Amino acid sequence: MSLLALLGAAACSPGGSTTPPSASSDEPTASASAAPQVENPKNLKAITNACQLLTADQLTQLGATGSQAPEESTSQYGESQCHFQSEPFSAYVAINTKFGGLERLTQDASSSDNFKPTQVDGYQGGRIDEQSDLCKVELAIADDQSVEINYFKNSGGTPEMDDPCGYAEKISSEVLKNIPDA
After folding, report:
1. Residue 123: what are its φ and ψ, rounded to 5°?
2. Are the beta carbons of 162 and 153 closer than 8 angstroms?
3. What digits encode the pLDDT tens for the residues 81-118?
4. Who contacts 27 (Cβ-Cβ below 8 Å, separation ≥6)?
5. Contact, 75 vs 136, CB < 8 A?
6. How far is 119 from 125, CA to CA, in rounded Å?
7. How many CB atoms lie within 10 A of CB 19?
8. Backbone phi and psi for residue 178, each to the nearest 5 degrees, phi listed first
9. Burial category of 122 from C-beta neighbours within 10 Å (exposed 0-12, middle 13-18, buried 19 and up)
10. Pick from 42, 61, 68: which is nearest to 171 by CA?
11. Which tens digits make up the pLDDT trace of 22-68?
12. Which of 41, 141, 157 is nearest to 96 (CA)?
């Protein structure tokens, strides 16, 4: 089931959630999550520094001219995030192994008025808070893990960089290449 179909189902149910199975149900309770499992999961727990998620070569390919050295900090999730700063754009890449996955993205979608489902390289996610010069893309890369890319258009660059969510997805595609399989 795609995230889009799941979001539609969540919108039709009161409060965006499903009723848990009763004790007399024949179905196992281990699959109480309404979200589908991530196919081909990746392992963000193997990454201790989010700055490892984009290489110097990838930044060059992305057109990050005049790049400053990547700067690691702690995200709102209490995990590693990295700030990539260049003349045409800035990006934050954050690791989320504590509160991530499709189930949380589905909850975010049902409570947000600025969430559009998306898919990058086979991974379900969302375009969040899209504006004319910024966008956040979050992808569920395992049942309980997500990677978040916040893109900010600065000045110059290519016309492709003027589409904030499209470019955030392009960066996401490069980030996915550096996350090991689970």
Report:
1. -105, 125
2. yes
3. 999 999 999 999 999 999 889 888 888 788 878 899 99
4. 21
5. no
6. 6
7. 7
8. -105, 5
9. exposed
10. 61
11. 333 443 334 455 667 899 999 999 999 999 999 999 999 999 988 88
12. 141
